[in-house]
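Sample pair:
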Amino acid sequence: MRRGVLLAALAVATAAAVAVSATASANTSKTSASSASSSCQLGNGIKHVIDIVFDNVHVNRDNPNVLSDIEQIPSLYNFITQNGTLLTNNHTPLIGHTANDLTTNFTGLYGDRQGMGVSNDYFAFTPSGGVTPSGATSAGQSVFSYWTGGGVGDGYPQMDYSSTVPPTGGTTAPPAPWVPYTRAGCNVGGISAVNLEMENTSPDIANVFGASSPEEAQLNADPDSFKDQEVNDYIGLAVHCAKSSSFCASNSRPVADVLPDEPGGYTGYDAVFGHKYLQPELAGAANSGDNRTFANGDSFPVVDSAGNLTDLNGAEMDGQYVHTPGFPGFGPITAAQTLAYTADMQESGVPVTYAYISDVHAVASVDTGPCSPASTYRGHPDVGYADGPGDNCYYQTTASYNAAFATFLKRLSDDGITPANTLFVFGADEGDHFSGANLDRAESPSCTGTPLTTSYICTYQSGQVGEVSASIHGLLKYEENDTTPFASQPQGESVYVTGNQPAPVVRQLERDFANVTVNDPFDGTTETAIKWMADPVVEELLHFSNADPNRIPTFTAFPKPDVYFTSGQADSPACRTGTTAANAPTNCTSINSQYAWNHGYYAPEINNTWAALVGPGVKHLGVDGSGPGQGPSSAGDANSGTTTDTQIVNNGTWLDQADIQPTIMALTGLQDDYTPDGRVLVEDMTNPPDKAGQPKFLALAKCYKQLNSSVGEFGTDVLVADTAALESGSSTDDSTYANELAQITSLGSDRDALATQIKSALYDAEFNNKPIPGDGDLAHCQGILQQADELAGVPTEIKGDVQCKDQTLTNVTVDGNLTVAEGSRCRLTGGTVKGNVQANNAASVDIQGGSIGGNLQIQGTTSSSTVNDVTIGGNLQVQNNAGSVAAGGNTVHGNIEVHNNTGGGTLTGNSAGGNCQLQNDNPGIAGSGNTASHNNSCNATA
């Protein structure tokens, strides 16, 4: 959520309307979008690219009885799963906010390289030890700014680019995501997409149009302090044109598309900014009166009778507050609005579009009746107040999104924009945690109807929806007697200690942060508020440090997901009168019902999100990973944050937001002028590029993600280790912290150097047709991960038997047997089990590499299971499984017995010391390349 933007918007809800005349437009005779992209030269038969990112729309169910967000949008869900691949094992960077997540998605760069790791707002230190902005309750300076916008006034741009890790330099803006396309002759549109268009009236209008421009003069002359009319006219929309593009040449107000820092140079390109100047071009999508019509009788509204652009439902596109034709606003922009702009652009000569759609978790402008913004639903008459899972108003919003996607996809199909010639990319910036009454919590909603249908309605009482808003300065004062001055940027709590405090004072504040407690009514407990902590060394290793040293937080504390700390240098609201150490957990907290969907934390349900690919070159895998009912959930308690991302079992391709951009480049045949932090998702492509199809590439790529991703194994381990170290010690003995920090620093330096080396090797394989050199990098990667495990206290040897219950065990030696708990999921990566492994009536098991001394039995599982490259001392038995089973490359000293399974799957390249039997499976399991010392019936589908 663009929370800073929404807060500002709500504050101006009563601003006076400013009248503006509608801009009439001429219709054209266009009937197909296929000719609009004739100059656009992309590879793999792709003519169009449509990249749509939601804000906080979930693939996982937030309440096990309530359909997930995407399940409530079946027109989109079915389009993806029937035509391409939905990847459910996607992850955010840290800190996971809209600005950082989307910029990582668009560029393939983590926040330490594109400059937006601490977002959606940040502070910067001044030479005197203060911070800017200096307002007492300010959340910081917004990172939302046009791509080349200025920063805090210290010579660094807003988005400060670093070509290296750790980040250095920072005096240039990062490479712009539209450049590879415009160089290939493609116009590129941005619709509420982070920083691809102007985000603020000041300083963006002066920077883009010029300080002496008519637009800047209009801004200065507008008496409205919120400049709502200028927001309508110029903010939120842009088209970046290819050279000699008719789109810009025919427009009344093209401006030079200035990117002075772009690698390889960027001159002679133009762009058009804002609804006001794009209106005439986009209205050209209409080809019959005010509509876009087709020979089959389908007709879709484009403009109204006054010539103003409409959404997909025919409603005039108006600004959020002045209600005159213009951009609807970032926070409330709906699917019907974003998708209308997207279709208009695609049909008007803009074949590449990046678009953003707001979340479905709050009262929306499209809601009607008691859910409408003008009503007093739960006493809150405005757009943006939170809904809980299963709330009738929540369903109303998702239903409108479902209808919008059905219309959008039909319109595109009629126009010849289909999966046959279009790369569709969908996803969500992050997950988030529902703070409120939920299943199996101390407080729960009242729900009726049939679970997992939209007839299952949940009703929430007053106070049952809302984050636990905590006055952090007050908690520290009353509970810990600590009044050290600091400014904080919440979600996660990035702390900027002011006044140039000495190190011992900072260390005590860190310990005191770890100890503060809050009362959580949804859990029914008083509990510590903080789960994880990171000092500047680990902030860098988690990729949210900055090339500008003044922007690096003193430390960051990640609260438990229900908790939202007040922001700035003072608390608003403050603790209540009469607060003492005993009552501070209650007196310093309150329920803020405006917001209930927290993100920016380290917590599995927040950091786990989804992505989807449809189009030429994309495999039709349906769902790659766990289903909506198998992911991390907001039910139970706020402490989904007590588990780590690496403990969540999901057999799907492991990716994070940085992998989207290089995958798009590979699919479209384009290439960047820099090395991204992501890698190409070859598992979901029909024809992996160059040398990326080699086995060495995939093994190294998988290890690299766990080494370099913010929430991979290495990042998680150093966060766990750092948290324990920061909580330790006293004013007289801080040796534990010092020793742990020295180890983290040394290991982190090795990680940074190796990760840089590996990502260069991966990039060369993907785009320069160079093979992966040797196996040294892979062995080094695995070794660093093992050292990080040991640093975090992850056991490397377990005596006796082990029950695996929704866990991941990496490089662990189990001296006894391992049993997967009934209904659970278990992942074993590397390591050794000296006894037997049994997964009877489990959800699934995923075993990659390593050895099992005894038998492996997989029986009665319900979801997809995999066993690859494992040495098994006894027998491999796979029977009576409803989930699919894939077993490949295993060396089995005894027999292989696969029979009576109903989920299908594959049995490839295995060897048996005894017999290999594959029989009585329906649907059949495909066997090939298997060998056996005795009888072998494993090389046919049975």
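The CA atoms of residues 62 and 634 lie 5 Å apart.
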